[in-house]
Amino acid sequence: MQQYISFFTSQRQKIDESCAPLVNAFREKAFETFQRTGFPAYKSEDYQHTDIAGLLKADFGFYLNRSGAEINPHKVFYCNVPNLHSYKHFVVNGHFYEEKIATDLPQGVFSGGLNTFAKQYPQIFSRYYNQQAGEKGDGLAAFNTMFVQDGYVLYVPENVVIEKAIQLTNISGGTIDSLVNRRILIILEPGAQAKLLVCDHTTDEHSTLAATQVVEIYAGEKASFDFYELEESSLNTIRLTANFVQQAASSSVIAHTITLSNGITRNNYRVDLNGQQAETHLYGMAIVDVQQKIDNFTLLNHRVPDGHSKELFKYVLDDEAIGTFSGRIIVEKDAQKTEAYQNNRNLLGSSDCRMFSKPQLEIYADDVKCSHGMSTGQLDEAALFYMRSRGIPMEEAVLLLKFAFTIDVIQGIRLEGLRDRLKLLIEKRFRGDLIKCQGCI
Predict the structure, then answer these.
(1) Distance of alpha carbon 307 from the chain centroid
(2) Contacts of 345 (CB under 8 A, 6+ apart)
(3) Cα gap 144→154, rounded to integer Å
(4) C-alpha 37: how far from chain center
(5) CB atoms within 10 A of CB 12
């Protein structure tokens, strides 16, 4: 912690140098918060199995003043989803990759870099940026705000519908151990609709590549937003995310977080259903083996009546992998007629992997429909025997059962092209021949 306090103090001018003044304006308060709280405490209630301070104690290099952004993603990386027909953007080592922006976006829509948006739309930026993370975030979110250099913003005006999906690819790479801090800001005014796919990839498998990412999503009244995150990185990566969602009346947010290959990953989701008839669907899936680790934490707050939420997280673990799920649903006393469902299911492929699960409900209203559940086990021996007796080889039978286990998470994806692509990637992952999406098409 002290090394980052000293670095921030001594390098403040360089941290600010290439960033918009409004981005820099939030750093001082975040610095005060970080000095006071530090990183989230290991073994505390919400961080039982992930030591943030321990993961970030190494002497990482920082990509400041647009250093490290010179990588051309079109030359070193190719990632596409057939039939998705999306707008495509890149963030390279925390910096938005500036290139010609699509001209067929609906009028008034902004889809581009964080610093550019802060300069072109200062009033909107100030109204939304860091409002959730600053108020409800912990020391990790404050750390990100201190050092963030750039990121991505999607702004959709009132009643505007973006028919095509947007694909944002985060690329981390370099020859030294490095830490990037990036931001995603999503603003949907009332009645707006959009879909965003975020893909995380690395270009180097020798250096340790760490990333913090803060996502703030604002869904106005009757707005609809689909948010998909796909992680395909490497064993040497550390990915720490904090996702904040604020929903107005009759809004709908669907969020998927899918980890196919990684090193150590911690994802936080905090969702506030602030308007009546707001609806949230939160899905997660992780396939981890070797010594990979995935830790998902969710907190859903039902604050008003007639809200609906559904959570489904599934893990497939093997070898010495570690999985963690901690989910909490809070139904406040005025949130009558709430419907909230939470389920975590886990499939263990070896005696050495570990799964920690903690689903929770806190209900302070008396007219609700809520449930939560968890199950952890191995493949069904009876189903395996039946398939073997029908002439299916053991290896193929195991693959089919694992794939069937994941199918309901995949079916929750509303982008047909992405859904079909994931089926192929998951099958390849279970066969052991998926490394990353680079050059896979």
Answers:
(1) 23
(2) 312, 313, 314, 315, 374, 375, 376, 405
(3) 19
(4) 24
(5) 15
Is there a contact between 232 and 240 (Cβ–Cβ < 8 Å)? no
Whole-angstrom Cα distance, residue 288 to residue 295? 11
* Helix (H/G/I), strand (E/B), else coil: 26: coil
Per-residue pLDDT of 30-69, as tens digits, reads 999 999 999 999 999 999 999 999 999 988 988 887 776 6
Angle at which helix 139-147 crosses helix 2-10, to 10 degrees, equals: 30
Pairing of strands 178-188, 110-113: unpaired
Q: How far, in whole angstroms, is CA 337 from its chain's centroid?
A: 29
Residue that the structure tokens 């707008």 belong to: 87
Measured CA to CA, the distance from residue 377 to residue 345 in angstroms comes to 8
Count other C-beta atoms under 10 Å from residue 135's C-beta. Answer: 9
Q: Are 430 and 403 in contact (CB under 8 A)?
A: yes
Bridge partners of 206?
A: none
pLDDT in tens, 203-220: 866 789 999 999 999 999
Distance from C-alpha of 161 to C-alpha of 146, rounded to nearest angstrom: 34
Sorted by sequence, the CB contacts under 8 Å of residue 1 that are 6+ apart come out as: 34, 38, 39, 53
Give the mean pLDDT of the chain.
Answer: 92
Amino acid at 106: P
